[in-house]
Specification:
heterodimer, A: 329 residues, mainly alpha, 60% helix, elongated, B: 338 residues, alpha+beta, two-stranded antiparallel ribbon, TruB pseudouridine (psi) synthase family member 2 (chain B), PsdUridine_synth_N (chain B), RNA binding (chain B)
Chain lengths: 329, 338
């Protein structure tokens, strides 16, 4: 403990440096290390932990901090959190029994499973600094909107930022989805329950995606409703991807709008995969997507089957042929 | 003592090639491969945590009765080395790309991991040639020589015959051979030039204009045609321009529908990994196959020179790829009959 004084003495004159050193030696004389003391006194000497006053990583503090130890035991990824600005300091300042434990108990009460607590805190550490009354008010609001308690628990588990938003904002979002898409209340609940991050993100990309579907792709309102109820992810997909897939399916594969509406999973699939499979089927002469004609291939099986099943059932060729064909594209 | 992750990383170091799909930027391919390799390397079992003895207060009240110490020694794991606190062992891998391919081309893309990047630098230095297949279509000329951009001119192509095509290609080949000789740094009237030419080593040293060392027409069904080229120092845009110029020479117009690299130095289509095989295990296999092939080649042939070897391999691969195509066509026709 006396060594720190010696280290930071750069600005002082050399003689003064020696003076301090000698002075500290005198101080040690009063309490020799070889003096015999009783066991209770030995136990009573408190050794302050040798932790640095400032650090870029939580590694230096995790063994000495009860909060951090318990968080690691819960499964929180501290290495990801310490990169975010100010989160590391915030976590260190929390007291486990006063701040963290009530919040975790609250989450358990609303039905979140123990294994998900680590995931929630890793993605949203700010839930630990939220007021418990606010959290309870938001959960009450959701249950008043006729979301069952299991649904609320699953929504919180999958969208960790959900309970950080005020009641007003949640209400605003739910209202938007109900009015814009002209869905019934139960359908809105269904869509939001399956993709809870719709309530967390900004509404601008959703509005743009809806405009893309209506104007660029040319879907009618009831078709858009059907697509969103079947595949809610279309609302948050990137515009470029959406237009690319739609352009390929409608203009190259020559699939009409009503068939795409019947199988909206194609809009969520990977473009390269769809392209390879379609070109392979075209090469084999099997690219037939009209249900009225014979040897019809349905779009959902085209994109969802794994490669082996696709080759044996739809293309009637071997997997090696498919890989060789991919190398000719 | 190296951890399993470090050992796996050392096994992954080396060269391999992937088949880049068309329409994807080469950087995305490199990033995907790096992510997959990181997943594979970090999935290895972590070494067990070290323990530390700490003295914790005794929870029960018996200590007062016994009158002894109120602390007991407990062995606790040191959490500062726990993977959730330190993060995964590898957070970044050095994955490099050889001769690049632009977004709309596809084909063999050589990549290297870790120490293999140094070999990649040497590969750039050696004069290896690359093999391309160019798909062309007569009838229109566009702004940047591809079939998707703004059309500048349309023309007829009925007058084009295979003979005229062969004549134009021969003329182009002659021009390129002349360029090959002018850009090599030897005097054409010397013995040295003759000896190099006999061995097939006559060529530009380092940077030069793009040179096509080989050019021929594989398929001719107007308006579609396919060319096969072997070239040095090229860019894909230059190859599309070549197709455009062929159209102009034939008094018509042509546009390039696809550029596909079938060989880059030693790496052929056979060794290229398709998108389904971009996981760490497949890359590991490919790297080890390449290094074993290199060792076998070192042991067997000590005197073969690079260009001759590449010429041989290109012919072999032509034969092999033709066989493969024939095989697939046979199997597909069989399948259709069934």
């Amino acid at each position: 403990c006396s060594s720190s004084a010696k280290v930071h003495v750069k600005t002082l004159h050399i003689s003064q440096h020696f003076y301090i050193y000698l002075k500290d030696l005198d101080a040690d004389d009063r309490l020799s290390a070889l003096e015999e003391i009783s066991d209770e006194e030995a136990v009573g000497i408190s050794i302050p932990p040798s932790i640095p006053p400032a650090s870029v990583s939580l590694q230096d503090y995790v063994d000495q901090s009860e909060t951090l130890t318990k968080l690691v035991q819960l499964g929180v990824s501290l290495w990801k959190l310490e990169r975010r600005p100010n989160v590391g300091s915030m976590l260190l300042r929390l007291d486990f029994n006063r701040d963290v434990a009530p919040c975790l108990l609250f989450l358990k009460e609303i039905g979140v499973e123990d294994s998900r607590l680590g995931y929630i805190i890793s993605h949203n550490p700010f839930i630990l600094s939220e007021n418990l009354e606010n959290l309870q008010a938001r959960v009450n609001y959701l249950t008043s909107r006729k979301f069952s308690s299991e649904t609320v628990a699953s929504m919180v588990s999958r969208a960790p930022y959900l309970l950080n938003f005020s009641v007003k904002r949640l209400d605003n979002r739910l209202g938007f989805f109900q009015q814009q898409l002209k869905l019934s209340a139960s359908n809105t609940r269904n869509v939001v329950a399956r993709l809870p991050r719709l309530l967390c993100g900004s509404l601008e990309p959703v509005k743009e995606n809806l405009k893309v579907c209506e104007i660029e792709c040319g879907f009618k309102q009831n078709e858009i409703q059907h697509i969103v109820i079947a595949v809610p992810k279309v609302l948050t997909a990137s515009k470029r991807k959406l237009t690319q897939i739609f352009d390929f399916v409608h203009n190259t594969m020559k699939v009409p709008h009503h068939l795409i509406t019947k199988f909206p999973q194609v809009l969520n699939s990977k473009f390269l995969r769809l392209r390879e499979r379609h070109l392979f089927l075209e090469y084999l002469g099997k690219a037939q997507y009209d249900p009225d004609l014979p040897s019809y291939i349905s779009l959902d099986r085209l994109v969802s089957l794994p490669d082996e099943n696709f080759c044996t059932e739809l293309a009637m060729a071997t997997l090696e042929d498919f890989y060789l064909f991919q190398k000719t594209l | 003592m190296r951890s399993p992750a470090v050992r796996m990383f050392h096994r992954l170091e080396g060269l391999f090639c992937v088949y880049k799909p068309a329409g994807v930027h080469w950087k995305l391919v490199r990033d995907t491969i790096e992510t997959n390799l990181l997943k594979g390397v970090n999935d290895t079992p972590a070494p067990p945590l070290t323990h530390q003895v700490r003295f914790l207060p005794n929870p029960n009240n018996e200590s007062k009765a016994s009158g002894g110490l109120m602390l007991r020694p407990v062995s606790v794991p040191v959490l500062s080395k726990h993977p959730l606190v330190t993060g995964p062992e590898f957070q970044h891998l050095k994955v490099g790309v050889g001769h690049r391919l632009d977004t709309s081309s596809s084909g063999v893309l050589v990549m290297a991991v870790g120490n293999g990047n140094k070999i990649l630098n040497n590969l750039y230095g050696i004069q290896t040639t690359r093999d391309y297949t160019l798909e062309g279509e007569f009838g229109m000329a566009t702004h940047d020589f591809t079939h998707t951009s703004r059309v500048v001119e349309r023309s007829t192509y009925d007058h084009i015959t295979q003979e005229k095509m062969e004549r134009v290609l021969a003329m182009l080949e002659g021009a390129n051979q002349k360029a090959l000789r002018t850009y090599s740094s030897v005097d054409m009237n010397s013995q040295e030039a003759y000896e190099l030419a006999v061995k097939g080593l006559l060529g530009p040293d380092g940077k030069s204009v793009p040179i096509l060392t080989g050019l021929r027409c594989i398929r001719f069904q107007p308006p579609h045609f396919t060319l096969e080229v072997q070239c040095l120092n090229e860019t894909q845009k230059y190859l599309r321009k070549v197709v455009h110029e062929i159209g102009l020479e034939l008094r018509s117009t042509a546009v390039c529908k696809g550029v596909r690299r079938t060989r880059d130095g030693f790496f052929t289509l056979q060794d290229a990994l398709t998108r389904n095989h971009w996981s760490a295990a497949d890359v590991l296999q490919a790297v080890q196959k390449y290094s074993s092939k290199k060792n076998k080649k070192k042991k067997s042939s000590s005197g073969t020179l690079t260009d001759k070897a590449t010429l041989q391999t290109s012919e072999e691969t032509l034969a092999v790829s033709q066989e493969n195509k024939a095989d697939t066509e046979e199997t597909t026709t069989e399948v259709q009959c069934n």
